[in-house]
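[audit] Reproducing an earlier prediction to check determinism. Same input, same settings, fresh worker. If the tokens differ from the archived copy the diff job will pick it up downstream; this log only records the rerun itself.
[audit] input (341 residues):
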Amino acid sequence: MLPFRTRGYRTVPYGMFRLEDYGLAAKNARVLERIYHKGHQLAWDGKEVLQSLIEQHGKPTLAPREKEALGRVFSIIMWGELAAWRISAELADELEPLEAKMAATSQAFDEARHFYVMHDYLEALDALPKKMDRGAQALLEAVMNADHLAKKLLGMQLMIEPIALTLFHVVKKLDVEPVLSHLLPYYERDEARHVALGVQYLPAMLSQMSVSQRLSLWGFQFRLITYEIWSNYGLSRDLLVLGVDPREMLELGQGKQMKALEMLFEKSVVSSDIPMNILSRYADALSELTLPTFGTHRPFQDRVQAALRVMLHGSHVQSVELTPEVTAEQTPLIRQEEAAA
């Protein structure tokens, strides 16, 4: 039997409508409210969509080597959706302002659908692994067990979600398996709203955090970046089997994360230049050590020298458009979208 966990005494949140008490700007609150209504409007039936795609393209199948690789890579997506479901449900419970609570509630509904649909897809492919890569597990568990809601919001919405969007983009472009390629636009449409929750609400949280709390949040990002690159390294062989360059995917993911953080700090009173620069150099140095450019066989000493150069002089990480343009034609089973069009 699981131990009963006690928590603080709950009270009716009469102040949930006073945005100024939470540092939340009225325009940000309006965006958060729209996230909820948009999520309701563009919800899709996961069972119906997956079954329709299987009827259209046939039962998903791949050669054994590619199937095992795809299963290991997308098991991270599946368990990541469960982590996002748990975190968004926690945010829906813990966030006080009405609009933020509504947006988190909408995301919890989306993530539940993402989890069971990915499980059903991998089961149909007969590629449901028992465990995922240790680096990815460490990354997800670090976010789930973070000691502050800001860390959970930043970790999930602005660091893990952009990586998932990167993987969706690359796999869809390669058209590894047709059912998956046509399923992913439904995920991408939802994930764009999820990132918006972090961008719109984190500035309010940052404005009310002490200096020590902000430093702790910054240190937490270092930890997540380490796990992220460890995960990418652990999956590099599987990515290569699927035709994906691990270094290219990592750089694309970093570009999307950079775009998400730029969007965040545009709305925040907190300066970002120095912390962002240090984080970027650290990530690039780890990349040089663990994932040299695809097709090269550089001795470890050369990798160390390259990492030191990056740490000292930096490298240019170009921000990349965070969310793709998903058309109604790519998601024909979203009925509300069809009606609106």
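[audit] rerun output stored. Observation attached for the diff report: The radius of gyration is 20 Å.
[audit] end
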